[in-house]
């Protein structure tokens, strides 16, 4: 590979430009203070781009300021200019994750010689190297290899082999395990030096489970840290002066265990690794998120004393590691480091977003045609629904908009459990309505008529970019999960008419309906839990006649519940979902799961199956409010009889249920 000379900015030129008012850029202290024989090398990272080139949410079909490589790219020039020497790497998960990726994979396809738009954009930005994330395999190996072929930068991956040898160094790897880049750097005195930068890449070995249909029989994965220990000495033997690990793996436990998904902490402890670029978790490092992690120093931005960075996701941040290198006895060594993550936007106290950067026009222009084609794709039908998808009655009866989310989640987790120790356990699915009026107003409801379903309709069904999770619970936890959900309702007095049904302090996204079991809710009982999950009445039993497959659920029965990362990790304080029952962390968002399900089914049948209802209470009625358009669907609601009770307040309509 030809030797590359880094773009440089001398201190004299920088200071002269600043004096002339030509620049507001501040030179990094490493560059400003570097002496003869000292070199400041800045390494910049993008990670988990997931095809987000344009600052656009294709699901909601609107521009946004929080995502996009076009935004991240616009700050790279300034960040480069702060350092005498710099390079740019990508940490994986660039090929899948939004409708542009699906459009290319499912609609346009990739032939030999075709350019994938995200690769085109990355070439425009000018990356030095990249690695492969777990999502690169979602569309199959043929699609991946044809897409990666267009990259004008080396792509490395050490722990995935097409032919596995006796040890990692004997493997035939899918991509080159590492690359050594010849670079010319400038020291503090303006002198040039040659340096060899080694880049090695890793992906979670769990890809063999997550994409088994594409990978089984074609490739084999190795443990990340085991692979690093095998190849790092070889890289040093090949002349690497410094080694940067591109770890598409999160920051997790410090204790090394075989086959770790989030292995960046033990990876950083491997001898001769000088810096670790992390990702996969869609988080930011350095940040307070990791304040209590063993071997992690948030203030210094280090893991086991090695500099590390994680640049968010979808282009939200640029990870930056600064190395002060010094030449001694013919070898380069790291004498000082700094780490940070630069955001492209900020969230204000009122939850509004302020953009901190503008777009790079060249990046936008490079994929503008594919962006327009993607817009047409998301606005066009990708499937059909045999019944309307609406949420007008989602808080009072089994509901089609919640039903389809549950069906898709269950379909997905069933596939993920195949071949695992959990195969054969009953799989249930928990989902809650997101658009259900309330403070959003009388129009704030999902409303997709029967017929064509477009990808952008999925945003109506699932507002948040959550990722799928599975938890294992027992029968008692299952019942208490439903008791927690039943806090949505006020306690009613038997024999009394027109009592207010809904607790206005209870958010709709915490009203989980669990599909796969049948049950009733006895509103004459007090709620066992308060609006925030706090225990109120420990002996209360609102959930009655809870059954699975026609048989009563007993406390010792075991179930898997498909849900999302927010709920599974303790969001909403649900029994059985406090972070300690997670058995599967999916690499896919719930939105993607729904889209895939619709595409595969062609026509979906989201009709509610009325697996839950209110227990009968003699001579008792309740009132609730919902959107006026609910009147169009009154007769379709199963499991409960609903009467129109006239107009409600603030544009809402009022309805009555005879219990």
TrEMBL record:
Domain of life from the UniProt record: Bacteria
What reaction is this protein's catalytic activity?
Answer: a ribonucleoside 3'-phosphate + H2O = a ribonucleoside + phosphate; a nucleoside 2',3'-cyclic phosphate + H2O = a nucleoside 3'-phosphate + H(+)
Keyword GTP-binding set for record: no
Does the keyword section mention Signal?
Answer: yes
Which segments constitute the 5'-Nucleotidase C-terminal domain? 446-575
Q: Name one GO cellular component term.
A: outer membrane-bounded periplasmic space
User: InterPro entries given for it?
Assistant: 5'-Nucleotdase_C, 5'-Nucleotdase_C_sf, 5'-Nucleotdase_CS, 5_nucleotidase/apyrase, Calcineurin-like_PHP, CpdB_N, Metallo-depent_PP-like, TAT_signal
What molecular function does GO assign, one term? metal ion binding
Query: What is one Pfam family matched by this protein?
Result: Metallophos
Organism name: Primorskyibacter flagellatus
Q: Which UniProt keywords apply?
A: Hydrolase, Metal-binding, Multifunctional enzyme, Nucleotide-binding, Signal
GO biological processes: nucleotide catabolic process
Designated name of the protein? 2',3'-cyclic-nucleotide 2'-phosphodiesterase / 3'-nucleotidase
| Occurrences of domain Calcineurin-like phosphoesterase (ranges) | 41-282
Cleaved signal peptide residues: 1-34
User: Which compartments is it annotated to reside in?
Assistant: Cell envelope
Coiled-coil regions listed: none
What does this protein need as cofactor? Answer: a divalent metal cation
Assign the protein's first listed, main location to one coarse class. other
The family note in this entry says:
Belongs to the 5'-nucleotidase family.
């Amino acid at each position: 590979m030809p030797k590359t000379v880094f773009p440089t900015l001398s201190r004299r030129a920088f200071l002269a430009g600043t004096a002339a008012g030509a620049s507001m850029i501040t030179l990094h202290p490493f560059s400003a203070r570097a002496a003869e024989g000292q070199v400041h090398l800045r390494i910049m990272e993008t990670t988990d781009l997931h095809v987000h080139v344009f600052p656009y949410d294709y699901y909601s079909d609107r521009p946004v300021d929080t995502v996009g490589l076009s935004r991240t790219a616009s700050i790279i020039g300034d960040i480069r200019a702060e350092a005498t020497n710099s390079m740019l790497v990508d940490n994986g998960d660039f090929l899948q994750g939004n409708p542009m990726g699906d459009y290319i994979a499912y609609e346009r396809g990739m032939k030999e010689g075709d350019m994938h738009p995200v690769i085109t954009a990355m070439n425009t930005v000018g990356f030095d190297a990249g690695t492969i994330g777990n999502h690169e395999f979602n569309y199959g190996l043929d699609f991946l290899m044809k897409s990666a072929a267009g990259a004008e930068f080396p792509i490395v991956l050490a722990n995935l082999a097409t032919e596995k040898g006796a040890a990692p160094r004997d493997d035939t790897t899918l991509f080159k395990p590492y690359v050594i880049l010849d670079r010319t750097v400038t020291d503090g005195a303006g002198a040039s030096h040659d340096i060899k930068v080694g880049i090695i890449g890793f992906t979670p070995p769990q890809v063999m489970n997550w994409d088994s249909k594409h990978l089984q029989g074609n490739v084999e994965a190795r443990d990340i840290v085991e692979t690093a220990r095998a190849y790092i000495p070889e890289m040093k033997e090949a002349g690497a002066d410094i080694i940067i690990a591109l770890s598409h793996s999160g920051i997790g436990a410090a204790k090394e265990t075989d086959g770790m998904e989030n292995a960046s902490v033990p990876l950083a402890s491997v001898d001769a690794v000088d810096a670790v670029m992390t990702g996969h978790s869609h988080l930011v490092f350095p940040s307070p998120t990791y304040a209590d992690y063993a071997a992690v120093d948030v203030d210094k931005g280090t893991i086991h004393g090695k500099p590390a960075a994680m640049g968010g996701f979808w282009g939200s941040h640029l990870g930056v590691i600064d190395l002060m290198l010094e030449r001694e006895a013919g070898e380069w060594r790291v004498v000082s480091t700094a780490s940070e993550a630069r955001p492209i936007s900020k969230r204000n106290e009122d939850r509004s977003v302020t953009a901190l950067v503008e777009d790079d026009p060249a990046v936008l222009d490079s994929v503008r045609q594919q962006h327009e084609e993607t817009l047409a794709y998301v606005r066009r039908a990708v499937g059909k629904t045999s019944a309307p998808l609406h949420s007008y009655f989602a808080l009072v009866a089994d509901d089609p908009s919640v039903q389809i989310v549950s069906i898709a989640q269950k379909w997905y987790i069933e596939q993920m459990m195949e071949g695992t120790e959990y195969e054969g356990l009953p799989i249930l699915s928990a989902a809650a309505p997101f658009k259900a009026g309330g403070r959003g107003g009388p129009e704030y409801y999902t409303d997709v008529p029967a017929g064509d379903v477009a990808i952008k309709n999925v945003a109506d069904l699932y507002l948040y970019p959550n990722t799928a999770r599975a938890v294992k619970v027992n029968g008692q936890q299952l019942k208490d999960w439903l008791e927690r959900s039943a806090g949505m309702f006020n306690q009613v007095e038997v024999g009394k008419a027109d009592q207010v049904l809904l607790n206005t302090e209870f958010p709709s996204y915490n009203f989980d309906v669990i599909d796969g079991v049948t049950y009733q809710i006895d509103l004459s009982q007090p709620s066992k839990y308060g609006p925030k999950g706090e225990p109120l009445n420990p002996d209360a039993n609102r959930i009655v006649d809870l059954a699975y497959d026609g048989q009563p659920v007993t406390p010792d029965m075991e179930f898997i519940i498909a849900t999302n990362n927010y709920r599974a990790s303790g969001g909403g304080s649900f029994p059985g979902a406090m972070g300690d029952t997670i058995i599967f962390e999916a690499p896919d968002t719930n939105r993607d799961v729904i889209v895939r399900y619709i595409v595969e089914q062609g026509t979906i049948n989201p009709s509610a199956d009325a697996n839950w209802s209110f227990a009968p209470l003699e001579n008792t009625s309740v009132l609730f409010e919902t959107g006026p358009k609910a009147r169009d669907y009154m007769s379709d609601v199963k499991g409960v009889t609903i009467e129109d009770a006239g107009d409600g307040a603030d544009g809402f309509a009022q309805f009555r249920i005879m219990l």
